[in-house]
Design a protein that fits this description.
Strand order of the largest sheet: 3-2-1-4-5
Number of helices: 4
InterPro entries: Host_attachment_protein (IPR019291)
Shape: globular
CATH superfamily: eRF1 domain 2
CATH class: Alpha Beta
Helix content: 25-40%
Radius of gyration: 15 Å
Number of domains: 1
Strand content: 15-25%
CATH topology: Nucleotidyltransferase, domain 5
Largest sheet: 5 strands, mixed
Structural class: alpha/beta
Number of strands: 5
Order of helices and strands: EEEHEHHEH
CATH architecture: 2-Layer Sandwich
Protein name: Attachment protein
Length: 141
């Protein structure tokens, strides 16, 4: 059985996200999130925000990016075997996610790519990450 890669891959856009792991052969989704899911209800507080001239759709996307950053932090904290993070997100979301990552998680960030890969099937994802054959270099503190 191949060794599990010690890297969490997170791919996101403004309304969908999923976490993946490389199992030695291909990428496999381990968790999915949606802006309108019960657990990550990004619409929850939008109605109570009283900002003039602000678009509720933009607010939902910003809130979802913040929640995904929190989920990434929690996943890395809960699993000490995860030594690195590769993040691919739509350009308008990537900045928001990175801005809300904890310092500990930011130190584990190996690579971030400004790409929306959320609709790419798992077997086709590996080529999009340009993963070296020898694996990623895990950052050391």
């Amino acid at each position: 059985m191949p060794n599990q890669d010690p890297v969490l891959y997170a791919i996101c856009d403004g309304e969908k996200a999923r976490f993946l792991r490389y199992d030695g052969q291909q990428m496999r989704t381990i968790q999915r999130f949606g802006a309108h899911d019960r657990n990550t209800d990004a619409e929850g507080e939008v109605a109570s925000i009283k900002e003039p001239r602000s678009d509720p759709k933009v607010q939902v996307k910003e809130r979802f990016a913040r929640q995904i950053a929190e989920e990434i932090d929690a996943a890395l904290k809960a699993n000490p075997a995860l030594e690195g993070l590769v993040l691919a997100a739509a350009p308008h979301v990537l900045h928001d996610i990175r801005e809300h990552l904890s310092k500990a998680t930011s130190r584990k960030l190996i690579k971030s790519e400004s790409k929306d890969l959320t609709n790419i099937p798992d077997p086709e994802l590996l080529s999009h990450f340009d993963r070296p054959a020898t694996g990623w270099q895990i950052p050391r503190s």
